[in-house]
Amino acid sequence: MEPILEIRGLVKTYKGGFTALKGVDLSIRKGEIFALLGPNGAGKTTLIGAVCGLVRPSDGTIRAFGQDMHTHWRSLRARIGLVPQELATDMFEPVLRSVGHSRGLFGLAPDPARIEAILKSLTLWDKRNEQIRALSGGMKRRVLIAKAMAHEPELLFLDEPTAGVDVELRRDMWKQIALMRERGTTVILTTHYIEEAEEMADRVGIIRQGEIVMVDEKDAMMKRLGRTEAHITLKQPLAAIPDALTGLPVTLGAQGTMLTYRGGDGSGQGKADVAQITKALTLAGIDYTAIDQRESSLEDIFVDLVEGRAVTGASA
What is the mean pLDDT of the chain? Predict the structure, then answer.
């Protein structure tokens, strides 16, 4: 199946010489939720702006729905929704009128029933006659989502959709994003909240200094780059690591009372190694009082990739 969005060799260099995007390649599948992760200044918003016509690329191609964005920009843009990071909207407009106006901007006929359904899905219907400026920050962000959905986009960009909202509202908005996907909308989101990507995304891409360093299925990424970390508290201090543990990634610390294992690859090898370590300690007559074991999270993998510690290799 042809990608709903295909980006090849995308470059953006600003006046003054700063290059925000350095030959980005990225393919987005129809119907997926794709999370683009990266630190501030990595190029996430520039990439979205290039697709949505807010940033003019210096080089490269963008194809959406099988057509070239440069050649068919107006018709293709009408099929794309954008929820920007900044709360830029007419603060003095009532919610209902503002969302309806967004639909008209794309040349669509008024559809009160559609607008009502969108506002109800985002818990905004009771606020429909209030001016946007009177709403809370979280409600204002919901209005941005409603405005982006008003023209029934097939591809929806969410740039930091839950920035600045509390945890309860953030999780409620996650549910709304999942419902969008169920209705057939392809969703691309950027986020600072790693748990957001871990909760919702089918695939994850990581961008660093204007380059995509990795794209993979979320579960595959966790399996390939994940690791196990275990801290074993010993009853009596050791002078050295036991010979039975030679070859395993184990260190001895805390004045000889703590064995630390860091290894595995997310496939279960780490857990097997920890079981081997505890068995070897028991056979050697070495008592331990506690084991603290954890598997790496997507956040751990993200930090390793951004800081250049992880080995990449998956293509977009």
Answer: 85
